[in-house]
Design goal:
about 500 residues; alpha/beta; five-stranded antiparallel β-sheet; globular
Amino acid sequence: QGIIEKLDYIKELGCNAIWINPCFLSPFGDAGYDVADYCRVAPRYGTNEDLKRVFEEAHKRDMHVLLDLVPGHTSVEHPWFKESMKADRNEFTDRYVWTNNVWEAPEGMGSLRGISERDGACAINFFSNQPALNYGFYQPDPEKPWQQSFDDEGPQATLAAMEDVMRFWLNMGCDGFRVDMASSLVKNDTKNKKYTCKIWRNIRDMLDVEYPEAALIAEWNGPRMSLKNGFDMDFYLEWGGNGYSWLMRNYEGTMDSNPHNIGKAYFCKNSGTGIDKFLDEYLPTYKATHKDGLWCFITCNHDTIRPSAGLTVEELRLAYATLFTLPGAPFVYYGDEIGMRYLPLPTKEGGYFRTGSRTPMQWDDSANHGFSTADAKDIYLPVDTAEDAPTVAAQADDPASLLNSVKSLLAFRHAHKDLNSDAPFKVLYAPKAKDDYRPFVWQRGDLICAVNPAGVSIELPLELAEDLKIQYTIGQAEIVNDTLSLGAQSFVILG
C-alpha cells in the first residue's frame, strides 16, 4: 500500500519503472534474499492481491514494475529444502547441491551439514541460511557422483520450477525481473559462464514465446555474457577500483561501515582524477555490447554505500547529470534524489555494512520523517536525525534543490529522443587529467553533453557547429566565438 500511495511521486520524479527488492515470504536472514515461498508476498508487506494492485496502479500511470528474482538459492525454511533434507528420495532430493556423505564438503563452497536426515552436505551460495539450488556442474567430476550435469533430471527440474515462478508473477501483471546473482547458477562453470548463459538463453526463449514484453535485468556486471544471452539490461556495479567506482566513490572502508580516504572520485571537486579511469573500462565493453542490450548505471543500490558519503550536493548534481545522459536506462536508488545520507548502523537482517544504505525514505519533518507513525524504536531502521536531514518536503519548492535537479534532468531526457537508452553515443573529448583540467564531452545523437567537475573554469578546444545552442545547464556555461567555456563544477547540453 505504501508503494501505491507514492506512485504519483515516483512518476513526477521522472521514473517510468520500479524495481522492488524481494518482497516474498522469508525469515529475512538476508533482507528477503533468502526466499521461503517464491509465490507468496511476505505479510510484513501485504498480500498477493496488494502486489497485484501495485502492478495495476502502475500500469494506469504508464509505469512498469520489476520484481527481484533470486534463482540461485532459497531459505532453509523453503518447503523444497525441507523435503530435500529427508533420507528417502523424493522429487526435491536433487533440487539442491548435496554431497553423498556428511563428511564430504563441496570443494570451493561453504556448506550446511549435520542438520538433515539424509547423509550429505548441502552447498550454500553466500550466507549459511541460503542453500544453493541445483543447476548442475560444468564437467562433473566422475569421482564425485553427486555432481550432476546441467542436462540431468534434477537441474532441469530446478530450471522448470524457476520458470514457473516467473510465469506466476507475469500472469499477475509483473513486467519483468531483476535477477539476483545471475551468473551464479551452474557450479564450476567456465570463465565465460558457458552453461549459466545457456540457462538464460533457454529462459529468454520461453519468455519470447509466452511473454515477449517481459524484461530481464542482470545483477552480473558482465554485459559481454549477459546481454548476448537473454538479458535486456545489466547493471554496472560497484566493484572497488573499476570504472564505475571511479565516478562517484573509490574510497576505502566499504566493508566496515566506515568509508574513508574519500575524495578520489572523478566527480569530487579537488580529486584531480580524470575521466580516463572510467572510460578505459567502459568504452571497450560498450562498443562490444551496445547492439545486444543496455549496460545500465545506478546511482546506488541496496548493496552499495550511498554516493552522498563521498560527494557534496554540487558533486552529486554533476554525477547524476552524467549518468542520466550516458547510454543505458539509469536507475535511481530511492532517496538518492534528495541526497539521503549513508548512516553507519549495526547490522540488520544480514545487512552488515550495507545496512546504512537501507534506512527509511525521508518524506518530511513529521515523526520518522513521514515514513511511519509508529514509535521510532519500532520502525525497521532509524531515519537521519540530523537537523539538516534531507527530505522531499524541504526540497520540493526549492528550484535549486537536488530533488528538482533530478526532476529537470529526467524531464529533459524524456523530452529528447537523442537521450533514449540506445541512442548513438560518441566520446568527443576526454583528455588525460592535468592539474584541474578534467573535462569530459560526449555526443548523443545531435546533442552534445559536457561536464567540468573541477573547481576552476575551463575552455574546450572543440569545433562547434554554428547553430548549436545551450539547452540545459548546471552552473555556468557559454559559447564564445565557437568555443565552449565551462565554469567551475558545471554541466551543459548543447543542441
